[in-house]
């Protein structure tokens, strides 16, 4: 019965009963009105589509109007419904009554396809805008209400549903996306509505069956035979209706779903998977089996995250019902591995839902193996917060859901005996086993939403740390106590600050009133608990630096007012005593800085405890400074006789003072004089311990910064400015002297402080209304700039193995290497900031820029950003700096290899590659970069002709090969015409000159074509000029004798040309005949008049060297003018850009572009000496589009035919 219905439905096209129905409807009572609207020539004023689109009417009344019209004339009503689906697809065509009566559905669809509006690819389901936002919802609601209202009679008339299902099946098979998308959505929603009908029928059948059984089991005397017959008849009708509904559902499933769940459009596939999930959840008896589940399992491998997401959400609805778990056992065993792997999906939304699904799978006993769970556990440390929170819920349910039951009548256990004690221990064990000890804040944040009650049980945590273990209970180890203190600190910070840790937050979120109240309550509770517990905790762990460092951070989150309102002053006194003892016991920098920050947090003038804390702090600092001055005086007097114990005492006291000076103003104590005296003694004697010098430099640095901060706040006296100016300049000179220290750590400290001071006291310090600080502005002298640059070259641009900072045989330790690299990056960044803020001359950056390629992996991002910033400051000066760096590399190469180097050597190719990378940073906006590029070429040409050849005037200049490097700054590859009788040494000049001419030719043609054929999409193809490379044999590249000349004659002629011809003005309006220029490229190096092409020697050849140099300079400017001409055409857009992306960001995109082009008939303008294979092998990360101007993205590359 089912298959007969399906095949008849698809073959007949829903025509069953049309004729009879049409005859029945003629002249009917309601022929003039449909849906309550007036009819004209069979068409209503407001179509059903318009009613649904507006969404103003209740869908129930709209459907009731349609049902009423269907009862009057079902052909007209069905025609209205068919046009509704056609118009919902965005088609402008209309199905007429004649078409409906005489044409098959396939013919109607083909006719509608022809009338489809092809101007736009949008249709109602995809159109953006407020009018269409609710259309999809209204569309789906209409179908659902239509079936619900027709479920008792009309859907069984073998006409309406047959016609609709046949139409939707045909539309879903259309090649038009709009038809396919809209009809699939309609069919799936129709199927969902039918599933609801089938479910109701099933329930009614079960009720009828129970009533029948109950009546039949009665005694014969009490049995009502009429009721039995009625119940049998009702059950028979329900069964027939159920069969009809099942036939309809089978037709939709096999005619639409089976084909569309693998449609090429992701939205269509997502619709199918979303709806089948609804079917399995609503009517699990019929749909929750492997025959339907397999489609969801297969689609979990879909390449689109949207579809994979629908699969997971569909499965979540199933696994949420524990009664269905038994039916999902086979599916779970088959697709469990896929679900686990989806927790690492590249789409974060998919990963989140996969973890949530696995959390529901935990309801099934022992389905997930320990390995499966561990793959989810580590995601609590993910930087993406939704993924981490989902993993935290999984972890909490797996490890913490089993609590010890509490007796309702028994008092609530607290502290070590509370039910949370074992759970807190479990958290500590998990944190230690994860081996990510620096990420406790991320673990706490992941568990916060699901386990905040557990994590806020600070009373239990304090008890675990302070109280003795219960009988039979195992005490925490030292490592576990350290982890517990760190977790406790993170929970306090999370409760007090109410935002995720660094790296997880998306910005500050506005807190609700409830969240603010919770935050205040938590801070109050934190203060009340830890104000009492912190002193004994510090006393217990006073000798453990790591524990003390974490514990001392707790007062930063206190509500200090509670010390007064809660009568907790005695605990404050105890806390201050413990901090003082810790300062006296420890010399570790982290511990001392934590003590300093704690004093800073407690010394808040807004609270009444300020005086008490300030007195304690002043007493401590008085003791430290007096002790330091006394020890320093004795230490300096002893000189070389000072032992290690004296040096240690000075160092430990200096460490404490430096740590406090970082957060507190110690201007009341004259620390500059003592520290400067110590530093000066170290310079004179040269035997001062390394750590003493380092901390003395840091302390003196703090003295100057605090002094500057006081002067910046308000009006300052002239004496104070003079004092600070003297101290600052004297200290800078001291740091400069320490740059030559034998100890690397001392030199690094002096360099870092020098860079900071030069930046702070630069000309920018007077901005923002601080003109009174102008006497403090300090500009470094040339000698200091030179020393800073030398330090960078000697200590930053070194190989990893040459770094001598790694000690104790740890050179091979990866962590040590990373730390050393991080330190060198900081040093380079400090110097680059001086370049960016114009503290040092920009030209000093040439030594930095030339290392770009060699140290790209270590410092490429820093150097690239520096180039970008300098170009924003001064484009021309930046261009001069870039060309200077290339000149320096060229000189170094010539010094090493000699002037007769091989231009195919790795050194020369490396310089060319660096030039190419530099050229990419300029972008393609020629209006903005024109002057900079021109200056770059000018300096490059001057450098190439600067030194004449020692072999005489007939030989090329020494640096002529540098022109070959300059060609990489041309946006188009040079056309390398070969001069048959010339030596290879002249190739750079020929290549550079012809590259300029080629650019000019191309631009001339593009400008003319832009005006003559604007708007045309047809490009005229030109035959390519023959390109002969340097590898061509002598026989192939030899020209006729009448067109050749000796290299000496060419040099003589080239020297004469600029003198005989007027130099063109440096403007972009100078044009030349492209044909003549192309022909001239075969006649010689320079274009000569006819009277100068004879091989006689011009008299000016014998003039002195200065005039010779002047002639070469004239030529350089002549060549430069060609580059200006070349810029004109590049600013004209082609009428039909072929390649959209100028710089490919990946190898795959370049390969895809190349595959679609015929390289036998066109030339692609890309940098020279790079064929297709070589270009595809270039690392894409070398080009950063972010450093290009925004306007560059609109410029297209042009392909020359």
TrEMBL record:
One Pfam family named in its UniProt record: SCD
Domain SCD: 257-342
Sequence segments annotated as region (Disordered): 15-37, 1003-1111
BP GO annotations: cell division; chromosome segregation; sister chromatid cohesion
GO CC list: chromatin; chromosome, centromeric region; cohesin complex; nucleus
Residue ranges of the TM segments: none
Basic and acidic residues bias (residue ranges): 1072-1081
Main location as per UniProt: nucleus
Biased composition (Low complexity): 1005-1018, 1089-1110
Database matches in InterPro entries: ARM-type_fold, Cohesin_Scc3/SA, HEAT_SCC3-SA, SCD, STAG
Similarity comment text for this entry: Belongs to the SCC3 family.
The protein's role, per its UniProt record: Component of cohesin complex, a complex required for the cohesion of sister chromatids after DNA replication. The cohesin complex apparently forms a large proteinaceous ring within which sister chromatids can be trapped. At anaphase, the complex is cleaved and dissociates from chromatin, allowing sister chromatids to segregate.
Full protein name: Cohesin subunit SA
């Amino acid at each position: 019965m089912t298959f007969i219905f399906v095949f008849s439905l698809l073959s007949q096209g829903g025509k069953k009963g049309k004729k009879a129905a049409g005859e029945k409807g003629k002249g009917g009572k309601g022929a003039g009105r449909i849906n309550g609207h007036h009819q004209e020539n069979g068409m209503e004023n407001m179509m059903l589509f318009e009613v649904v689109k507006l969404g103003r009417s209740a869908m129930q009344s709209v459907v009731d109007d349609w049902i009423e019209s269907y009862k009057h004339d079902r052909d007209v009503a069905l025609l209205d419904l068919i046009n509704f689906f056609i118009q919902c697809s965005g088609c402008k065509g209309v199905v007429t009554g004649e078409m409906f009566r005489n044409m098959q559905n396939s013919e109607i669809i083909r006719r509608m396809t022809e009338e489809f509006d092809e101007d736009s690819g949008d249709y109602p389901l995809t159109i953006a805008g407020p009018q269409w936002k609710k259309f999809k919802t209204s569309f789906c609601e209409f179908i659902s209400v239509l079936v619900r209202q027709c479920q008792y009679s009309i859907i069984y008339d073998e006409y309406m549903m047959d016609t609709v299902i046949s139409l939707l099946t045909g539309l879903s098979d259309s090649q038009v996306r709009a038809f396919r998308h809209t009809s699939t959505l309609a069919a799936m929603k129709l199927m969902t509505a039918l599933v609801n009908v089938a479910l109701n029928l099933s329930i009614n059948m079960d009720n009828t069956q129970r009533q029948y059984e109950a009546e039949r089991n009665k005694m014969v005397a009490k049995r009502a035979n009429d009721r039995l017959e009625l119940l049998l008849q009702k059950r028979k009708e329900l069964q027939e209706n159920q069969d009809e509904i099942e036939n309809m559902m089978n037709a939709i499933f096999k005619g639409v779903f089976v084909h569309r769940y693998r449609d090429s459009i992701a939205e269509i596939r997502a619709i199918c998977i979303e709806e089948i999930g609804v079917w399995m959840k609503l009517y699990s008896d019929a749909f929750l089996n492997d025959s339907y589940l397999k489609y969801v399992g297969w689609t979990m491998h879909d390449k689109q995250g949207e579809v994979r997401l629908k699969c997971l959400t569909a499965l979540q609805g199933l696994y949420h019902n524990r009664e269905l778990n038994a039916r999902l056992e086979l599916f779970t065993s088959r697709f469990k591995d896929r679900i686990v792997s989806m927790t690492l999906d590249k789409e974060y939304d998919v990963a989140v839902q996969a973890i949530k699904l696995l959390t529901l799978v935990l309801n099934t006993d022992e389905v997930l193996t320990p390995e499966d769970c561990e793959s989810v556990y580590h995601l609590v440390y993910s930087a993406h917060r939704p993924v981490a929170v989902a993993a935290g819920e999984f972890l909490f349910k797996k490890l913490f859901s089993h609590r010890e039951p509490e007796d309702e009548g028994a008092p609530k256990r607290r502290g070590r005996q509370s039910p949370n004690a074992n759970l807190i221990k479990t958290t500590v064990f998990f944190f230690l086993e994860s081996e990510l000890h620096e990420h406790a804040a991320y673990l706490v944040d992941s568990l916060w939403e699901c386990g905040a009650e557990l994590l806020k049980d600070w009373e239990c945590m304090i008890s675990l740390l302070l109280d003795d273990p219960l009988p039979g209970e195992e005490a925490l180890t030292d490592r576990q106590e350290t982890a517990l203190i760190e977790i406790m600190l993170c929970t306090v910070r999370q409760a007090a600050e109410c935002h995720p840790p660094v790296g997880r937050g998306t910005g500050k979120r506005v807190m609700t009133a409830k969240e603010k109240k919770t935050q205040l309550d938590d801070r109050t509770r934190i203060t009340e608990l830890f104000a009492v517990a912190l002193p004994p905790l510090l006393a217990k762990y006073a000798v453990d630096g790591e524990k003390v460092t974490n514990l001392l951070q707790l007062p930063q989150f206190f509500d200090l007012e509670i010390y007064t309102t809660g009568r907790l002053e005695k605990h404050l006194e105890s806390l201050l005593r413990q901090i003082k003892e810790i300062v006296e016991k420890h010399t570790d920098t982290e511990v001392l800085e934590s003590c300093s920050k704690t004093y800073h947090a407690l010394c808040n003038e807004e609270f009444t405890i300020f005086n008490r804390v300030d007195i304690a702090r002043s007493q401590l600092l008085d003791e430290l400074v007096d002790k330091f001055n006394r020890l320093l005086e004795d230490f300096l007097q002893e000189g070389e006789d000072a032992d290690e114990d004296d040096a240690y005492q000075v160092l430990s006291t200096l460490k404490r003072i430096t740590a406090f000076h970082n957060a507190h103003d110690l201007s009341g104590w004259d620390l500059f004089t003592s520290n400067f005296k110590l530093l000066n003694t170290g310079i004179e004697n040269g035997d001062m311990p390394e750590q003493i010098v380092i901390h003395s430099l840091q302390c003196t640095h703090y003295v100057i910064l605090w002094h500057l901060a006081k002067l910046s706040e308000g009006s300052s006296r002239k004496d104070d400015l003079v004092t600070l100016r003297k101290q600052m300049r004297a200290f800078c000179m001291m740091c400069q002297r320490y740059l030559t220290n034998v100890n690397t750590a001392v030199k690094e400290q002096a360099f870092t402080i020098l860079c900071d001071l030069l930046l702070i006291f630069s000309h920018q310090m007077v901005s923002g209304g601080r003109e009174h600080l102008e006497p403090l502005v300090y500009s470094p002298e040339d000698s200091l700039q030179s020393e800073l640059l030398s330090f960078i070259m000697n200590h930053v641009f070194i190989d990893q193995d040459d770094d001598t900072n790694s000690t104790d045989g740890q050179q091979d330790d990866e962590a040590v290497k990373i730390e050393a690299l991080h330190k060198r990056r900081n040093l380079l960044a400090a110097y680059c900031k001086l370049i960016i803020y114009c503290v040092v001359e920009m030209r000093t950056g040439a030594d930095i820029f030339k290392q770009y390629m060699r140290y790209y992996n270590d410092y490429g991002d820093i150097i690239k950003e520096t180039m970008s910033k300098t170009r924003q400051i001064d484009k021309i000066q930046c261009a001069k700096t870039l060309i200077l760096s290339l000149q320096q590399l060229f000189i170094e190469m010539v010094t090493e290899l000699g002037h007769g180097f091989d231009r195919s050597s790795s050194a020369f190719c490396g310089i060319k590659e660096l030039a190419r990378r530099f050229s990419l940073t300029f972008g393609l906006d020629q209006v903005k970069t024109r002057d900079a590029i021109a200056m770059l070429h000018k300096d490059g040409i001057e450098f190439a002709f600067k030194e004449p050849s020692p072999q005489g005037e007939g030989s090329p200049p020494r640096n002529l090969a540098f022109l070959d490097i300059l060609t990489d700054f041309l946006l188009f590859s040079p056309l390398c015409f070969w001069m048959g009788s010339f030596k290879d040494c002249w190739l750079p000049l020929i290549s550079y000159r012809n590259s300029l001419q080629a650019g000019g030719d191309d631009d001339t043609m593009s400008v003319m074509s832009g005006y003559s054929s604007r708007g045309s999409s047809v490009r005229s193809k030109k035959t390519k000029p023959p390109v002969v490379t340097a590898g061509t044999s002598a026989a192939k590249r030899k020209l006729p004798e009448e067109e050749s000349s000796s290299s000496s004659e060419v040099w003589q002629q080239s020297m004469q040309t600029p003198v005989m011809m007027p130099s063109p003005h440096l403007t972009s309006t100078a044009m030349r005949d492209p044909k003549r220029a192309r022909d001239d490229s075969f006649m010689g190096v320079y274009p000569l008049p006819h009277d100068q092409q004879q091989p006689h020697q011009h008299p000016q050849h014998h003039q002195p060297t200065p005039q010779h140099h002047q002639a070469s300079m004239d030529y350089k400017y002549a060549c430069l003018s060609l580059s200006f001409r070349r810029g004109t055409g590049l600013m004209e857009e082609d009428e039909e850009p072929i390649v959209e992306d100028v710089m490919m960001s990946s190898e795959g995109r370049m390969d895809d572009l190349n595959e679609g082009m015929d390289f036998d008939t066109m030339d692609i303008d890309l940098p020279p000496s790079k064929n297709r294979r070589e270009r595809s092998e270039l690392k894409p990360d070398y080009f950063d589009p972010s450093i290009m101007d925004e306007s560059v993205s609109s410029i297209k590359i042009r392909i020359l035919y």
